[in-house]
């Protein structure tokens, strides 16, 4: 008998249909991945199984967990099943734990609410479970003392403490670094084997799906468009959406030949220290070195990638280049001009650089219209365009990013995530900067939208020589949109070189680890041939 | 934790020092002669000279400040000009009315606000929530002296359960508490209304957090998740308000003290200002500032007890 069977599940909230006739089944020890873009209904399917739907949601159909229909089960019985027969791991490990309780207590709670046992024994079992998930810190620690990967291990320990038959993991590694992601995925696969449980993995990352799933379910707009065993699905995609999804994930852009000449940006021996917590009460404040003797150059029109894990100093470097923070040592110059003069940002240099940030939802003031939003950089100019010239500049910037001049009068909430990121790029382009910094600029986007934005960036490069520094944790994206790449670890650039060369023949052990840890998309045409 | 506490203690000492400077400056260094000010326009020059000598006004500002502060540290608050008794004694008499009253009101306010706020949050949008929120709206809007008069009307004049005012002293603790009950209720109701609203909204914020969803996925019921995970996290803003309210209750009970004819600090300061007795005003204000700062220190320590993240900070 299958451990989980979803039969004809439909879900509506008010008048909106969220899920339509979703079917899925899973055996013991099997990993089933649900994939699709945001809004496809992946997470809602998971929450339906847990019986944790938002208020006002009406579900129809059948969700059988070991023969028990979740949709027909009363709330008190569902509470008995949650954490016991089924466990769930969520996306955001930074907020998934209660900040005021120790991690041991939070794991022990799962045991204590379901089993009649003493506190001491529950804590012992919790400690054992934390050890099993590979956590090497004491159970008496608080969540804020742990890294994202460690916290995710705690959440996993909580979910599997009672060895549930079914574990649901909703984007469990999306917020993590690649090397951490690889370790967490290994752990999940181990646990599935050891406990013979079913794992329902929700993820948008097709490389992860292809890597770990036994069975793939592709969802689009609340419907299952395709479901098949992994090898079979990869070899023979039936639905055009599945194919489009895989193609967009591995989307490669064609960058024009390098056109510019001469040096644009020079970063020499830059050092940036931050004060850390005192070790002794009145002892000296220890310093944390965020940038350690960083040196590199960029030419006019050159496209450079910067990769590294969180905390490696990528953001500090961005802030230093933009002149947002002064560095303690070294020298940053754009076209020979220092970005910082007399302890103040140098405006003459600042206006020649722009930045595009990650989150298209929070980087705009919701009360301003698009024309005002994208003309923000004008304040850097001594003589900003007025009247007709301003309108023309707005129209051109919007046109450059594939929007229409008519969008200038709209508010930001009227746009989708991808359109917002286009507006962010328009904002960066409007004063025609020589250097743009893309700081995880496509990381929050769905694969198909991401592909479009990458195409847009390549297009812009074709229209004019555009130099950019592309910062991302996503190696496959960096590989396609850059000429040269730098790898950063603990504040140092450990390797830099021609992008293709670094990716095919990494020299530094850290680069090798990073590339090995990144899950890889199967080659589509290649997969067809092998089966 | 110790480092955090020491950090807060340092800030407490600095605040006290700055506050003492400000109070001293405002009252003693204001233009004109404090002695002449205290005695009024018709005072005779030799009376003024006598007062000047008594207040030490013939000495330098630095010496006077130093004498005042060291006096305060020894518990010597000076001699009241109008009452002709040591200020310390005046304060001692009244603090035993004001402090218990403030604590009494605060306990009442917390006892009302916590259950009301938690109940409203757990039944968000339901009839219970709407009723409680309506009641707190009234509680915030109606001034406490009006409550006080209504309470007197009902419980003292009509039902005769309590006396309408006055304070019998702590000779019979039961009678003393009884005398403070109506004033404490009058003070507590508006505070409870504010506190309940803060508790509710803070809890609702917490209920939307990811870790509540995690708790529910573990198998906790809605109510268990609320009690075990949301309440403690919701306490931080609530503690802030409690700290502010205590300071207000201690010093701001003046109207209620008038209504119930209680010999408290509020009335002392009011009478001293009317009588232009700067020596009393200065010392009582300093004492109130001291209390406020110490209460804030206690609130800071309470934060750390609730939230482990604060313990790690310097």
How would you portray this structure in words?
- Chain A has 531 residues and is α/β, with parallel strands linked by helices.
- Helices cover 35% and strands 25% of the residues of chain A.
- In chain A, helix 6 links the parallel strand 7 and strand 8.
- In chain A, helix 3 (103-114) runs parallel beside helix 5.
- Chain A is globular, with a radius of gyration of 25 Å.
- Residues 526-531 of chain A have low confidence and may be disordered.
- Chain B has 314 residues and is mainly alpha-helical.
- Chain B has helices spanning 2-28, 34-39, 45-55, 61-74, 87-122, 127-141, 144-158, 173-207, 210-218, 222-251, 254-260, 265-274, 278-306, 308-312.
- Chain B has 2 domains: 2-74, no CATH class; 88-312, MetI-like (MetI-like fold), CATH 1.10.3720.10.
- In chain B, helix 5 (87-122) packs antiparallel against helix 6 and helix 10 runs antiparallel to helix 13.
- Chain B is 79% helix and 0% strand.
- The mean pLDDT of chain B is 85.
Protein traits:
heterodimer; A: 531 residues; alpha/beta; Rossmann fold; 3 domains; six-stranded mixed β-sheet; 19 helices; globular; disordered C terminus; B: 314 residues; mainly alpha; MetI-like fold; 2 domains; 14 helices; 79% helix; 0% strand
**Within the largest sheet of chain A, what's the order of strands?**
6-7-8-3-9-10
Helix content of chain A: 25-40%
- Rounded to an integer in angstroms, the radius of gyration calculated over CA atoms of chain B is 24 Å
The gross shape of chain B turns out to be globular
The strand count of chain A comes to 22
User: Could you please say which CATH topology of the largest domain in chain B applies here?
Assistant: MetI-like fold
Shape of chain A: globular
CATH architecture of the largest domain in chain A: 3-Layer(aba) Sandwich
The proportion of residues forming helix of chain B, as a percent range, comes to: over 70%
Count of structural domains of chain A: 3
Number of helices of chain A: 19
- Count, helices of chain B: 14
Going by helix content, strand content and strand pairing, the class of chain B is mainly alpha
What is the multimeric organization of the chains shown?
heterodimer
Return the average pLDDT of chain A rounded to an integer.
Answer: 88
Task: Tally the structural domains of chain B.
Answer: 2
Cα-atom Rg of chain A, whole angstroms? 25 Å
Hey, roughly how much beta strand do the residues of chain A contain?
25-35%
Number of strands of chain B: 0
Following the backbone from N to C, one meets helices and strands of chain B in this order, namely: HHHHHHHHHHHHHH
